Each structure stands twice: as C-alpha cells, then as structure tokens.
User: Fold these one by one.
Assistant:
Number 1:
Amino acid sequence: MKEDNILTVDGLCVSYGKFNAVQNVSFSVRRGEIFGLLGPNGAGKTSTLSAVEGLLKPQGGTIIVDGNDAVAKPLHARASLGVQLQSTSFQTELYVIEVLRLYAGIYGVPMSKNDLLGILREINLEDQATKKFGQLSGGQQQRVSLVIATIHNPKLVLLDEPTTGLDPQSRRQLWERIDAIRDKGHAVLITTHSMEEAESVCDRIAIIDHGRVIAIDTPQAMVDKHRNDPEVIAVSRRGRVTLEDVFIALTGKAVRG
Ligand SMILES: Nc1ncnc2c1ncn2[C@@H]1O[C@H](COP(=O)(O)OP(=O)(O)O)[C@@H](O)[C@H]1O
Ligand SMILES: [Mg+2]
C-alpha cells in the first residue's frame, strides 16, 4: 500500500562542527499537501531542507522520501524531489532557453525546442527565450527556477523562501503555481517567514526556532489554540489575533541576525 506521507522526517539532527543547527526535528508531509516550515532567520529551515535533499548528511534521525531512505538511498529519494533552494543561481550568461534545455537534460526529460518554448509560454516568458538568464528580473528568474524545479514532475517540491523579494503580482502568481502542484496530487514543502503566505498557501505549518519544532498544525488551528494565551494577547495589535501574533509569542520578540 502506498504510504500517505510523501515525506517523513523523524528526529533529524544537523550540526555544523559543534553547533547544533537542527535538533530532533520531526514532521511529515502528506501527499497532496502544502506544508510550511516557518521560523525566524537562523531557525534551521534551510538546513532541514538541505538534509531532505541529501545535500548535507544529518548527524541523526531518519528522512523517508516516497518510501526511500534519503540518507541510505539518496538517489532514489531524489528522483521524487524537485528543489528550488534559497541560493539557487543559474549560469547567468546562458540564454534562458539553454538553461531550460540544460536542466531538462540533467533531469533526464528529453525536450524539443518546441517543448521548451511551450514551457516558457506557460510562464509568460516566451519572448525572453533568447535573453540571458542574468538579464531577467528577479520575478522572471524565480519563475524559471520554479519551472526547472518541477520539470520532471516530482512528487514533492521543496521551495526555500521562494517569494522573498518578489512583488505582489509575482508572489500571487507563484502561489497559484503552488496550488497547481497540489491540484496534480503532488506535495510542496515551503519555507517562509511570511505569515500571510503561510495562511494563504499552506495546509499545515510547523513553527521552528533554534533548530526545534515548537508547534505543528493548520494555520487556523494554531491561531485558535493560542488565541487566549497572555503572551499572544500582549503582542496582538488592534484587538485582532493573527498567525503572526502567535508566531511572535512562540518565538520571542528579539530580532534575529
Ligand atoms: N555552512 C554552515 N556553517 C556553519 N553554520 C551554519 C551553516 N549553515 C547554517 N549555519 C547556521 O545554522 C543555523 C541555521 O541556519 P539555516 O538552516 O540557514 O536557518 P534558516 O534557513 O532558518 O534561516 C544558523 O545559526 C546558521 O548561522
Ligand atoms: Mg534559510
């Protein structure tokens, strides 16, 4: 029987030297679900995603992607994954269509020039096919990198702060693309520190801080559960409790570096 979870992370620990960036983190992502990892800067979001992707070896815990152990069988696990990491930057001197062709090749998805142009048409970039990737705007680059992350139709897409720096239109468009991934029955694991984003796109969220998960629930249930906490009321504004109030109350007011 196919497992309900496309991803199960259990007791994950990631260290950099003596520093424990991720400490005993557990959560799971169901098939067809958009799951958000929320946390302040330095919380351990990117480290968690990097371990799921197999880019770094965890010091402890297990990661199962689509039934495959990501540590023992990273290639099997990676076949089910599409990844858009925070620091992804493509060869800026390549033409947009070449970037697409390159990654279609890397992912083993044969595509004709017409296929590639069709993809660019879908993301409203057909006219930019012969521009260099580096000449695209931030939002346009982001669209290309998402399309590349999903070019092989992966069952789980990892997105690390994909909307940081995007204008509202591009952000909305990305949210629609994320919904479209779910409509295909696939799942998305997204990191963000935008509460609006979490409430708008995520079915469930985990709040993570100092490398630990401190709450997992639907955005609405999380607000309802903490609505009457004195710490939440103390930080709420204009008499209305939002997910951001809960987030601030749970993670503290101190600004992170
Ligand atoms: N390569 C690295 N070497 C040492 N420390 C790192 C490295 N990458 C991340 N860290 C530290 O690990 C913690 C978690 O980082 P990260 O996972 O990038 O957090 P987030 O993505 O939530 O902002 C931070 O304190 C960060 O400074
Ligand atoms: Mg990060």
Note: The mean pLDDT is 91.
Number 2:
Amino acid sequence: MIHRTSTLAVAAAATAGLLAAGGAPALGSPHARAALISTPKLVIHETSSTITVKGPHRFSAGRVSVTLIAHKGEQEVGFFRLHKGYTYADAKRDFAAFFSSQTPTPAGIKALNRVVRHVTLYGGFDTGTGHKTVSGSVVLPRAGTYLVINDDQGPGSVPPVRLHVTKRVGNRVTPTSSATVKAITAKRFRGATTLPAAGTITFKNESTNSPHFLALQHVKAGTTRKQVIAALNSGPGGSGPNPFENGTAGTDALGMGQSQTLTYKLPAGTYAEMCFFPDLQTGMPHALMGMVRIVHLR
Ligand SMILES: [Cu+2]
C-alpha cells in the first residue's frame, strides 16, 4: 500500500475500544449470568468496486469480530459514525476535495479537518499484500448507525453498508492479544517492539489530536527508521536502496481514544510500523514526518 497515492485514502476511515467489553464477570456477582453476551461476527468480502457484509446488521453496542476477505488485490475496510448534521454526502465531498490534488490545497486541508471533526473513526482492516485475509475486532461503543466502507479508494467510491447498533446490554469477551502498539500525540508509535509473526495485537490511538492507523511493512533485516523515512520520501522511483520486502498488513484509521485488535499471519522478520494518515495542518502523511518505528515479528 505504501507505493500508492491512494494510501492516503486509507487513512480517512475508522475505530474502537474505549468501552471494550470488560472481560468475564466475577463469579457470584448478581450480574454474572446476564453479563457475558456473544460477539457478533462479520465476514466482509471486497473487490475494489464492491463490499458485502455477511452476519448480523443489527446488534447491541460493544465489540464486533471482523474478517476481511479480499477477492482481488489489497483491500481495506473501515468503520465509522457520522456526527449529527453531517451526512455521508458531506463526507464523500470532503474526502474528494482533499484527494483531488496530489499536493493538498488549503481548501483540501479544510475539507480533511471537517471530516475529522464530524466523523468518529472506529478502525478497520487492511489485508495487505501476499494474502487474502486479515481479521480482528473493533468496538462500536454506543447505539447509533455505523457505516462500513470499502476504503480501497477512499470513502465514496462504493456505497457503504449500514450497521444498526442498539444500546449496550452486556459484556463481550475481550480477545487475547499478545502485544500492544500505541499511537501518541507526538505522531509516533510506542509499545511493544516485538510482535507475533502470527497472532493478535492491540492497536490503540492514545493521541489527543489526530486519527492514526497502523501499517506493518516487512523490511530488510538491519533497516533503520531513517532509511525507511528516506525511502518513503524518495517515492517509488527514488534513487536510494529499497528497504521493503513482501509482507504487509494493517488497520484502517482509528480515532482518538479508540482501540481495536488485529489478527494476521506474516513472515517473521524486521518490520516498519507506519502511519499514512494526513497531517491536519499540512496534509503530509505522518510517516513522512517520522511516524515510523522498527519492530520485530517473531
Ligand atoms: Cu498517524
């Protein structure tokens, strides 16, 4: 995904976890029997021009388990909620305004900020390359209508699917996660430096001022953060050495204070964590501003 300009589009979509299910209820508590409820399971199939969501479209607030299956190439899905008074047509128009020029214009940056102010992003999934599926969970924390969007070319290219979430009625199981990656306000990644090569991780957006997403990109052993940033800045036809290897997977954009889980299987090795969400002042993807961290998958 890092070689496409549309990568930026991925950004603008999605996520969740604030009100993540609190785990198993205490035995003997008066609420024990009522507390643990089953987790809705959605299986999403995408091509670049279609999205189908199999599973329930109406359920109570809380965690939702998601599997994304790409029928062709790399696919992304995002979950978001529009705030009152801001319509899907508004979001579509604002995204289009931001992505209409290669170099963001002042009007485009205003449009991007309108999206971020009026849309809560609950995360999502990017199948990456070299495999057809990725899975995990997002948290849709309260009652309302949520949109599931095919984020391959950004919102607007394919009609969204609506989920009707009713009020929370109980706890759901929190998936077992073996590492946590955090995005922070300084536009950097923090958290575990060793992640599973096959397994489930948690991604949290702890920043207070911007959505972020997590792209895991396999790189050659020994690659430094600076080399990755230099390669990203020089672009596909750049003169420097290419540090990238096959193997990617990721989340979609996650709003401030939200979290999600991501379950994947990738070749073991050295990886760059990268975020391409556009800066709200300049439109520059965060990775080019240094939001790159080297980690190891074992
Ligand atoms: Cu970011």
Note: The first helix runs from residue 7 to 11.
Number 3:
Amino acid sequence: MVFIDEQRLHLGAEAEVWLGSWMGQSAIRKQRRNRSWRHPDLDDRLGRRRMIAEARLLVRLYRSGLNVPLLLDCDMYNQQLIMSQIQGKPLIDILNDSSISDETVRDILNNTGQSIRMLHRQAVVHGDLSTNNIIITPQNEAVLIDFGLARIEYETELFGIDLHVLFEILGASHPHRKNAIDAVLEGYSAYENAHGPAKNTPGGQPVGMQDVLDRFDLIRTRVRYHG
Ligand SMILES: Nc1ncnc2c1ncn2[C@@H]1O[C@H](COP(=O)(O)OP(=O)(O)OP(=O)(O)O)[C@@H](O)[C@H]1O
Ligand SMILES: [Mg+2]
C-alpha cells in the first residue's frame, strides 16, 4: 500500500494522523500508536481489535448514507487506516473564533445535533463526542469523525451520555457561546421530527429521540446534584 505522508495533523496518545496521498489521491492515514506501558502482545491484540471495530463502523455508517470518512484501506499488520479527508475545521476552532457570529454558530450547532441524531438512529454511540471530533465543512455541515470508541448499542443511558459529554465540553471550554447545548438539542430533535422514528436496525429498534433527550436531562440533574 503506497501512502506518501505530507503533513502530520495530529499526535495523540492513541493515534498519529497524517495527511498525504494514497494511490494518487489526497487521503488521511490514521496510525495506531503503541502504548508502552502495556505488554506488547496484549497491546497488539487490543490495538488490532479496536482498529477493526473502527473500520467496521466507518463502513457501516458510510453505507447507511451518513457523511463520514470513506474507508480506503485497513492495514492490520501496520495498524493503520486510510480514509478520505473531510474538508473543514474542527468545531473547537469554530467556537473559539470570535469573528464567527453567534447566529452562524447556532446554525452550526444545530447541524451538529442533526448529525448526532443521524448517528444515534443507526444505533451507534460515538463514545467521544468532543469538539475535536466534529468537523465543520465550508457549507457549515457537521461531520462526525473518530469512531475509535464507538459501538452499536441499544441502551438509552449510553446515548444520553454521548450528549452529556458534548454538553460538558461546551460548558467548560466555550462558556462564551451561551446556550450552545440548546442549539445542539434543537437540531437533534428537528432531525427526528423531519424524518419520523428511526427504522429498525439488524440488532433491534434504535433508542428514540425523546427517550435520549429525557435521559440527557436526567443525567444533567444527577451530575449537578451529585458531582
Ligand atoms: N478523515 C479525516 N479528515 C480530516 N481530518 C481528520 C480525519 N481523521 C482525523 N483527522 C484529524 O486528526 C485528528 C485526530 O484524529 P482522531 O480523532 O481520529 O484520532 P484520536 O483517536 O482522537 O487519537 P488520540 O486518541 O491519540 O488523540 C482529528 O481531530 C482531526 O483533526
Ligand atoms: Mg479524536
């Protein structure tokens, strides 16, 4: 497999991400990093398992029509995924850019909520909904990336937690963007209202929109009183 690295976009604890070219087209290479504190054999097995899970979900979501990176290659031996690049800026940069109006941000957060509901309607919890893992395209669409911790699930609580993670990040890192979560929740319910209840998936009925929103409220109250 020929991938030519051009620019390193990210160096994290779990992965290193490069922009480059693959078979002549511009693409992203996500390389898993070894965790030195784990036994190498265990690390290899865990790493491969997680990488395959991420690759599977990418394929499944892409096929279901979601705007997610297109998986181009899954190289088990070198523990790397090659995928299409999503053009845009991470949501964290948009929220920190004071030249972007509150009105535009509202629109973007609304689209973010819609994308999250689209994901949840496929019975997939993201598991790490940080503002780094949401890319905003030049058309202000919100594209979710990084399915390294994502899973197929049918438990309401896990979907509520997905929203709560984003809520906490919005409050802690972007307090100047007032009521940000409300715009996300509006988009979340607007999508379902426009499309009707989610269709059955092979594993069962995905958790309904109202159930997730109610659970999110409950989690928010629980955390407020019990820390
Ligand atoms: N398909 C993609 N298109 C555009 N940018 C991407 C893409 N995939 C990853 N990136 C960029 O690389 C960053 C890190 O990728 P990703 O979130 O998938 O890794 P990670 O699992 O969070 O790694 P770590 O846990 O080590 O921090 C993203 O926040 C994003 O900026
Ligand atoms: Mg990430």
Note: The longest helix spans residues 40-63.
Number 4:
Amino acid sequence: MSHAKTFELTIHPGLLRNELISFLHAFGIEDFVEAASDTIDADDVDWEEVLAHWTEKDDSPLLIYRPEASDLETLIVALKEHFGEGMTISGKWIADSLWQEAWEPDFCSLETQKFFIGPEGVAPNPSRIHIALVEAAVFGSGQHATTQALIRLMESQAPLTEQESFLDVGTGTGVLAFAAHHLGYAPIVGTDIEDHAIEIARTNALRNNLPLTLHLGSLPPAGKVWDTIACNILPPTLTHLLEALAGLLTRDGKLYLAGFHEANCEGIEAELRRIGFEVVAARKERGWIAWLAQRPSS
Ligand SMILES: C[S@@+](CC[C@H](N)C(=O)[O-])C[C@H]1O[C@@H](n2cnc3c(N)ncnc32)[C@H](O)[C@@H]1O
C-alpha cells in the first residue's frame, strides 16, 4: 500500500480574492484550484441580488497542491509579508491516492445493480442497462469512486412514482444524467462550465440515443425549479454552490451530492444544515461519499 502524500495549502482570501489571484500569477503560480463562480447568462437577472450574493460568497478558498510542503515555503512567507493578517493560510497532507483518484481516473467500466457503464467497444453485461461513453479527457466516465457512489445511491432509492425533473450540475460526460433517464427522470438538463465537457456529453447523448438538454455554465437559466438535482463536484466548489442549488429545488426536492471525501463531510453537512437540509441517505465508495439530502418534511 502506498503512503505517498501531497501537500495541500488552503488560502482564504476574504475580500482580497482578486488581489490574491494577481499575486499568485505574479509569483508564477497558475495551477491553483479555486471555487468556480456561477455563470449567469439569463436576460432577466436581478443584478443587485446577484452582487449582494457574490460578495457574501467571495470568501471561498484557493488551494495549491505540491509534492513537498517545502515547495510552498517561499510562497507562504511572501503571502504573509504582502497580506499580513488579511488572509488565513493553512496546510495539510492528503493521501496521494485520494488526489490521483479524483483527477486522473483510468478509463474502465463500472457495473452496478442496474447499469453497465463503459467505453464504447467494450462488450457490456447483457443483464444490465448499457451506457456507452466515448473516451475523453473529461471527468465522469463512470469508474470514479464519486460517480460510482452517486449512481449506486440513486439506483438504491425507491422507484419514482411519478415523473420528476432532473438537473445535473457539472455533468462531465453526462453519465449521471443518462442513469437518471433510465431511472425514470424527465426532463433532464445537464450543465458544465467546460465547453469540452458539454461537447462530450452531447456526443454521448447522441450515441446512446438519450434525451439531454445541455447548458454551458454553472447553473441553468433562472426561472425553473427542479424535483431533483445531482452535483458531483469537488469541494470547495460544491459547498459554494449548495445554497444556489437549494434555491433551484422544489420544497420536497432531492439533492444528490458527491465529490467529497469522508474528511470533508463535516463542513458540507454544516452548510447543508445552515440552508435547511438534512442528509437522508448515504453511500461510500473507497472513502468518497455520496449523499441524498432533503428539507425535513413539515
Ligand atoms: C467531478 S466531475 C463530475 C462529472 C459527472 N457528473 C460524474 O458524476 O461523473 C465535475 C464536473 O463539474 C464541472 N464543474 C466544475 N465546477 C463547476 C461549476 N461551478 N458549475 C458547473 N460545473 C462545474 C467540471 O467541468 C466537471 O466536468
């Protein structure tokens, strides 16, 4: 068993987010991970509301990953000199296996109770519903622990008694949306901030002859509420998006979440509680968690 580790530096910039990003660029650091912001492209946006929300949310952290903590020593000193107490910096070691698993999945097939999900050309198991995915450098090929956990959680719930709409935020290859179609959801919309992901999801939908409306951007245009939303995105983006997702759900709507490791559960559960949701079902695959969350019934 490998004990290799990666050092994770977390910087909370407070209101100095833009200054921090410019500082990192000037320092030659381009590979930081930041919580993505929602792309707003609806015509009828209430900008005052959006900007108020934006400022509140501006404190999402930036993360930098390095094989050695010492690789970041000079940066930490420079940050402290430049920003003083203006931002909080913390570091921790994370197991390499987790990091690799999240970002560099090998493409292979996934078999669950209901589905066989695999690359085109691989012979499926005829007793499962087949979802064939084109091989592409887009996350969501079905074999990743977060995707597996979420699909297994979705298929283990009681069958739908009536049709429910489904929004897949961060659709990647579209894999969750395709599983949702076979579980009876309709209509289904997938969003992604990467245009390459949207292209791949579109190709996969065509090849599998499955209905999927796609939207480039974080959230779909305003004006519709959803019965179910799925979101498999690594924290801190997931945490950052939760309140907006809650606002897009019906009162009894279901929120399927994944993308976080058991080490992240506490923070995500706290945010869920803050916005009035509770975890009602869970699934774990190799330490990665999937949750079904809902508002308590009144
Ligand atoms: C971990 S992958 C999940 C893919 C697929 N849904 C699955 O479950 O296998 C996360 C996807 O979310 C997209 N993404 C990242 N931040 C996002 C955001 N703020 N809004 C929408 N999509 C985002 C990424 O481009 C990527 O395709």
Note: The chain has a mean pLDDT of 82.
